[in-house]
Design a protein that fits this description.
The structure is a homodimer. Chain A is mostly helical. Chain A is built from nine helices and no strands. Chain A is elongated and about 60 Å long. Chain A binds a DNA duplex through helix 2 and helix 3.
Chain lengths: ~190, ~190
DNA sequence: ACATACATGTACCGATCAGTACATCTTAAC
DNA sequence: GTTAAGATGTACTGATCGGTACATGTATGT
């Protein structure tokens, strides 16, 4: 299977898993919706779980790159970027394809910490926290570890709440809370 | 089926769904682990989805009662109770049976807002927000709606993060953030 | 002993599941 | 034309899925 076919499979499978869930999506549905044959799929992925992990890794890469880029566009200084995260979240949760956090869903469906799928979701969160920590450090936060963690918790809470309830009335209080926390640590 | 048998089924099914997920749990597994026959199950629940909804409703009741009681035990004043929520969360996420939020999992596996299961999860969140709003109002918050929402977002973020990464280093920053937000609104 | 209510046990239905096997097709290079 | 690589299509395996049907067992009241 060519690399481009493999990438196409992962991208399309990602969209289906994100929309419908992991257990609720069988391999036959993926065949039907991607137009890629089952034989081809099993040429690149030993198991369905391996395909799921590949989709999570792609999602991690696309997601962090997108957020990083957007946050840099919207925020001129590191301090501004910390707050800009919530503007980026606002754009996302109000988008038509918003369906919550793929990693939260993955760890919900694969709850054991020993599961490679759960581990991949945990890895994403770790990387994202590192991303936040970098910016908080650059912004001169008094306790960048704490601030990064707090902003991450608000982010996760906002995403989950927007997914369950809908996006209304979620980002404004999150952003206000973030502003307060940021101002408490950064001049 | 007697009421007590029905309650037993719901309680046991709740534990299984919470531990293993909804789609990953078939009716035969529930039969095997509860010792209740399939015929009996279908005497009280038209469908598996109906059983899931019953487990979510029970979970909502037990959860809110438990949190409410514990928060009142740990916090003398409404202001203290707002912060005490995070101590209660700390107890929960460090417990051996902690497996994240059942409602977040449910809405993850049933993403459509039109799904009765998703709607039941959303209802729980709405009720919990109301619970927080009551305490914030009693505590004399300047903007109780905002404060309640912010504390809920921190709570959701803490739960989700503890489930994905493990409980370490989650509640301390959440609690510190909550303290700051509370002090900003309540003398 | 009999009737009734409650419950169990399990075979069965049609469908779907992950993964395998293999025949066949398409394209490209030589 | 031949070979090789990449891919499709689909039947198949054994298992599981939600839900139904029905025979059988148990407990209780009369």
């Amino acid at each position: 299977m060519s690399a481009s076919k493999r990438d196409e499979l992962i991208q399309k499978a990602l969209n289906i898993f994100y929309r419908d869930g992991f257990h609720a999506t069988g391999m036959d549905k993926i065949v039907k919706e991607t137009g890629i044959s089952k034989t081809s799929m099993y040429k690149h992925f030993r198991t369905k779980d391996d395909l799921i992990i590949a989709t999570l890794r792609l999602r991690d890469e696309l997601f962090r790159n997108q957020i990083f880029r957007r946050v840099e566009e919207l925020g001129k200084t590191p301090k501004d970027q910390l707050l800009a995260l919530f503007d980026v979240l606002d754009e996302w949760i109000n988008g038509v394809e918003f369906n919550g956090c793929m990693f939260i869903k993955a760890s919900g469906e694969y709850p054991l910490h020993s599961s490679p799928i759960h581990a991949t979701a945990a890895e994403h969160k770790k990387l994202f926290l590192g991303f936040m920590l970098d910016i908080a450090t650059q912004a001169g936060a008094k306790n960048p570890n704490e601030l990064a963690e707090q902003l991450l918790l608000l982010k996760e809470g906002a995403i989950v709440t927007a997914h369950i309830r809908g996006p209304e009335g979620v980002i404004a209080p999150a952003r206000a809370a973030a502003a307060l926390l940021i101002d408490a640590q950064i001049d």
